[in-house]
Design brief:
183 residues; 6 helices; Endonuclease I-creI; two-stranded antiparallel sheet; four-stranded antiparallel β-sheet; alpha+beta
């Protein structure tokens, strides 16, 4: 049968493959960006919250396939390369590591519009982020530079909810396995 993905133009199969890659190698989060703004009373802290969907891998053909799918679906993205031996996050890669990011409310909503039906493992985080995106996009603009929405306390709650969903579930499976052995 060979590589069916490489022999088809069926966007649905490509999106399902991408969702599987995101489920296994990806991350869905909200990044808090602290911002200080000048007001008449002085400086104030006004954080902004930015959705981030990312996939990291060391396989360049996989990166190229992701770029191809994003391009075909008009999804804007960033690519970042990490040299072997340079620490990133919790790990130090032994190979050249790339991370492809989709950031921002409009971009993440556009990606989730097409991937949400196919996600399994990351579906809970994606559903929460999708609701966040729609809520923020529904808020009035607060400045002429195109900032979308205004910070509200529930934004931090949503960020914490996604963080909670991102905690490693494998520990839970290991604990259940220990208890099952005892019975």
């Amino acid at each position: 049968m060979g590589n069916q993905l490489g022999k088809t133009d069926d966007n649905e199969i490509r999106l399902a493959w991408l969702a599987g890659l995101l489920d296994g190698e990806g991350s869905i989060s909200i990044v808090e960006n602290p911002e200080r703004r000048r007001t008449k009373e002085g400086q104030s802290y006004a954080p902004s919250f930015s959705p981030r969907i990312s996939i990291s891998n060391t396989n360049v053909p996989t990166l190229r396939r992701v770029e191809e799918i994003f391009g075909a679906n008009e999804i804007a993205f960033y690519v970042r390369w990490r040299e072997p031996g340079k620490r990133c996050g919790f790990a130090t890669p032994t190979k050249l590591l790339w991370t492809i990011w989709v950031t921002g409310v409009k971009r993440s909503k556009r990606l989730l519009d097409i991937l949400l039906p196919y996600l399994v493992t990351k579906e809970p985080q994606a559903a929460v982020l999708y609701g966040f995106d729609k809520t923020v996009l529904g808020r009035p603009r607060i400045c002429k530079h195109g900032d979308v929405g205004k910070y509200v306390k529930s934004d931090r709650t949503v960020k914490l909810m996604i963080s909670s969903l991102n905690r490693n579930p494998q520990r839970l499976y290991a604990e259940h396995a220990k208890h099952d052995d005892i019975v």
